[in-house]
Amino acid sequence: MDKVDYRALQVWLTLVVLTLLTYAIGVSGLGGAVVVAGILLSVAVKGHLVVDVFMGLKGVRSPWRWIVTAWLFIVLLLIGVAFTMGES
Amino acid sequence: METVASRPAIVTKRSLPGDFAIWIFIYAELLVFGIFFLSYAFTRARHVELFNTYQRHLDRESGAINTLVLITSSYFVVMAVNAIRRGAARRCSQWLLLAILSGGVFVFIKLAEFSAKHAEGVTLSTNTFYMFYLSLTFFHFMHVLMGMVILSVVAVKAYQGAYSAQDHTGVETGASYWHMVDLVWIVLFPLVYVMH
Q1: pLDDT of residue A61
Q2: Which of B42, B68, B194 lies closest to A39 in CB terms?
């Protein structure tokens, strides 16, 4: 019998809710700088949860964990910059 | 006076889960996907109208369902790793089978999406947006297939009793690769299907 992994289940539920939220934004047609920032923030949260909990990198010694986390945040930040350039 | 109890505990940092070689591969893959994402974003900055117009033609439902499918498959993989850490090898292979089946659902939905675009006459040379859409999603699609092959090999080996609670590096290696595939899609879906 499997033990319920409440942390993993909690992360899975969070990922599902944030994905449905992103989809709802897509369907509503909302766009612009604030919406893009909100979506990128939700992707940062989702990605961070996958890296720390699903991949199990939380507690892994440096720099290995931070390479993945830094990749995520740098890519999202630069995507944000590119979308801001597109707005102007 | 400082007591023993008030001293910070010595935190033992773990090493990466799975084989170190897969992490070199994962870091390289993340770098390639990162360059791909930024190429998309900065090219879009110069063709905003074009990207916004053709993004509306994408099947957003398929993209969202596939995100849920990959997230769920990742959860199954977490359960597989938990199972083998308890020494439950058969249970581990069952969880992996669920993850592989989820991967199959992703592949089926993606093929239907590609097929619909092909029927509309969309190709890599249709326009810049579709060039990025097709190449990015197809590149990721190939990684899903590769991940399914890796998980299948691990599932068979787990079923045959090749892993134990003490020795299960292979399971963690396959799991790490699969989570990378999931992580990349988590960025790709909003970037290509939603953000404008």
Answers
A1: 82
A2: B194
All residues of chain B having their beta carbon less than 8 Å from the beta carbon of residue A20 are 64
B118: distance to nearest CA of chain A, Å? 23
The predicted model scores a pTM of 0.93
Q: Which residues pair with B14 in a beta bridge?
A: A60
Chain center to CA of B32:
14
Instruction: Please state the φ and ψ torsions of residue A67, each to the nearest 5 degrees.
Output: -65, -45
The model's confidence at residue B5, banded by pLDDT at 50, 70 and 90, is very low
pLDDT tens profile A39-73: 999 999 999 999 999 999 998 987 989 999 999 99
- Is A51 in the B-facing interface, judged by CB distances under 8 Å? yes
Read off the tokens for B68: 């849920």
Integer Cα distance of B20 and A61 in angstroms: 13
A45 CB within 8 Å of a chain B CB: no
The answer to whether B94 and A31 have CB atoms below 8 angstroms apart is: no
Q: Is A18 on the interface with B (CB under 8 A)?
A: no
Tokens representing B10? 């010595």
d(CA A25, CA A40): 12
Round to whole Å and give the CA distance between B113 and B148.
Answer: 19
| Residues in B touching A27 (Cβ below 8 Å) | 60
Could you report the per-residue pLDDT of B103-149, keeping only the tens digit for each? 999 999 999 999 999 999 999 999 999 999 999 999 999 999 999 99
